[in-house]
Design brief:
Radius of gyration: 22 Å
Number of helices: 7
Distance between the termini: 43 Å
Strand content: 25-35%
Number of strands: 14
Strand order of the largest sheet: 10-9-11-12-13-14
């Protein structure tokens, strides 16, 4: 799909300083205005249907939509493994005014015997690209119970290996290089440091759903022994998505929220924030980072 970035005409304003030119005269370049074209990240709605019934509408960057839908269903506890999923197809009902398919309606078919989504997880209105839990029919539905445990995951890795993940994440953000406006999520092998998959999206939660959907398609759930690296903050919904996929470690370049820390601590997930260069802050399960420094020792290892 080619609708990832769009070229738009923009006006670039550059603030400068007044002063003297090279010949002793006055120069006033307090502001220069230039017209130019630039790329912006595309944001479009995707309606996800299950067995023909609308489930939710989420704003996303087009591309890897089937992974997004599959990952969303894993995150919501509708499916748990590749055998629960059958097929997905774009609906012709998504045709635009020109009669062409906009590829903005996706219908997922579950495997025989898999129960359809419970009505309690249906969204009252569309999910924005910045919030993965807005519009829940009930607040109780947020606390989805995962089929997978992460507290007993034997993952161990050195902090120096983890410190290299942000650069590896940034190196793979091809669309960000063009637009400067996309989040990214990547999955790393905790033993080797290999980057397994990377996805970009205007919404941080959609980027993570695409990663989880990729794992489902490749029969890799639960994702034991892996690290989920995200380009922004570690929110409650991203922590929940990691748990639903059986990921034992979530690392972010920015801060976590209080609910993310509480959820990670309760579930035994290692949560790392402010992962920048050689420094990081570990909010839960620091024992997975070895050798542990003196600062990371203590009685709160869970």
């Amino acid at each position: 799909m080619s609708r990832i970035a769009a070229r738009r005409r923009v006006t670039r304003i550059v603030l400068g300083e007044s002063g003297r030119d090279g010949e002793g005269g006055e120069r006033d370049e307090a502001m220069s205005v230039r017209g130019r074209s630039d790329f912006v990240a595309v944001e479009e709605p995707l309606e996800i249907r299950v067995l023909g019934k609308p489930l939710t509408v989420t704003m996303r960057t087009p591309g890897h939509d089937i992974e997004l839908a599959a990952g969303f269903l894993v995150s919501e506890g509708v499916i748990h493994a590749s055998e629960d999923y059958a097929t997905a197809r774009y609906c012709g009902a998504s045709a635009g005014d020109d009669g062409l398919n906009t590829y903005n309606v996706l219908d997922v078919t579950l495997a025989p015997g898999v129960a359809p989504p419970d009505p309690s997880i249906e969204r009252n209105f569309y999910t924005t690209s910045s919030c993965g839990v807005c519009g829940k029919a009930s607040i109780e539905a947020v606390a989805t119970v995962s089929r997978y445990r992460v507290d007993d995951d034997p993952l161990r890795l050195g902090p120096e290996l983890l410190a290299g993940f942000p650069d590896a994440l940034r190196a793979g953000q091809e669309v960000f290089d063009r637009t400067g406006g996309l989040h990214a999520a990547a999955l790393f092998d905790g033993a080797t440091g290999e980057r397994l998959v990377l996805r970009e999206d205007v919404g941080r939660h959609s980027a993570v759903d695409k990663v989880i959907g990729w794992a489902l398609m490749h029969e890799r759930l639960p994702l034991r022994g892996t690290v989920l690296m995200v380009s922004g903050r570690a929110s409650f919904e991203l922590t929940q998505k990691a748990l639903m996929a059986g990921i034992p470690m979530l690392a972010a370049v920015s801060a976590p929220s209080s609910l993310a820390v509480e959820l990670a601590s309760d579930a035994g997930l290692t949560l790392v924030g402010f992962l920048r260069g050689p420094s990081m802050v570990v909010y839960s399960r620091p024992d997975r980072l070895v050798p542990a420094s003196a600062e990371m020792q203590g009685d709160s290892t869970r």
